[in-house]
Model the fold of this input.
Amino acid sequence: MHLSRSRFMAAGIAGIALAASVSVPALAARKTGVDAVPTPKLGWYKCYEIAECATVQLPLDYDRPTGAKTEIAVLRVKAKDQKHKIGSLFVNPGGPGGSATSFALSAPYFLSESILQKFDVVGVDPRGIGASANIKCFRSVKDQTTVIDKLNVAFPVGKKQEATYAAGARELGKACSSTGKPLSGAMSTAEVARDMDVVRRAVGDKKLTYLGFSYGTALGEYYAGLFPGRIRALAIDGNLDPRAWVGAGKAGDQILDARLHSADGAYRALKEIFKRCDKAGEEYCAFAAGNPEKNFAAIAKSLKAKPIEVTDESGTYKITYADFVGAELSLLYSPYAGENTMQLAADVAALIKGGSTAAVSAARASVLQRIQTARAIGYDFPYDNGYESTMGVVCTDGVHPKNAASWAAKTDVRERQAPYFGKVWGYLDAPCARDTWTVRDEDAYRGPFNKRTSAPVLLIGNYWDPATNYDSSVAMSRQLPNSRLLSSDNWGHTAYGTGACATNAIDGYLLSVALPAKGTVCAAEHQPFTEPLDTGDSPAVATTMAATAGKRLPAVVAPLPASILVGDR
Done:
């Protein structure tokens, strides 16, 4: 993932109320609102050398289709074989806050040739985001920076930081609930699904073909709930459980991660890495000496007691426990999660031990590079609305606890349940506290999410996903009646591009709507600690792996909840 404010790109995960809370007439009225919008004529023009761009004015509120409008950006890369084209493939990279137009533009670099031949690849930037009309919660960069600086940690540690963080979360919520209007109250996932349905008509597709990753799975799930009869093929990779996202009933008093269990997925992955590192031994794992799990805990304890200071020619940097955990979480997003996380642990352990050996010097350079990259977040000109666009979706999709100050105790509980990652994931939705984030989207969709769709849905989940817990893909497969779960044993976030099995299965489904066999578990191209450390070409830095020669992994905008950008896919 690459976000200008990566620390704040939170899991695109907000709530869903009880299905009973939405009446059949209300749903019918919403459909009518979308269908009442005349099919727009897209004024395509050549852009970015390989693409076509357009903008379209769509209703701010679909209950008032002739009322106020918001500008939505659309980009397509046309199919190479127009004569035998199947139609359009709509894509979304996740976030929330990720740009679907940028994602579509990068399609030639990660999608298989068979897909590029037969589909126009289309990206619709969600309202408030990317090249669409942007949400802006502050009147100036100065005002924005004053607030964001209070949130400028991977996660707060200690009562002083917790109080500062809670204050910043409250101020952000109030700003987006006032200055951020009207977009802040009109950018729920349901609105994006409605926009996508109008654009589907505009490009001439009778039914939707869609590939979504991470938070983009929620967009697919919402579309299936709102328009179950309008689906040709829906492939969603790295699923969120929409019921947990919504926070129905008493669940709305829980923080988001207590419902989604992202931290549990991350901890599960780390525990497995400890086990495999120990088994592989020192020839294959940089952190295998002794007991990896106990040694990792010792690093955490040391950093909690006293951060380490590392100096190079540009200055002195303090590396805290939160920095370390945040960086380790970001490294879990890579297919090389095992090598990457254990190398960082070994480097930090060497710095704690100290000395002037060549090994310590190398560790210093490695850790500094990771931490400096992690902190490369700019709030200077021009105005960057990345955090606000994420929160605009997260906070309006679901229900969240009342008071921002309550997150400290609630994340303490999560930290005990999912060590290391309970806080870094737990603080995601703190700005959504409902006594300060008071703007609402009255047309946010609250379910149900179990409608039978006009075509079968392909759900993809990988065992070791540190963001969208594999259990959520399983849960979604159980509630969506016309669906099939494809599992993968790869590391990192999402599965497409990590092995020929998963990639070919997804491609085949998109091309012919043919599902893989029930119970299929795909083998990944890479498993950790399978190559000796002294090969001279460490897989820990090989981040361009893909199942198809010459292709890269999709640029998924992962729900990364901290100021960490290490180990990008």
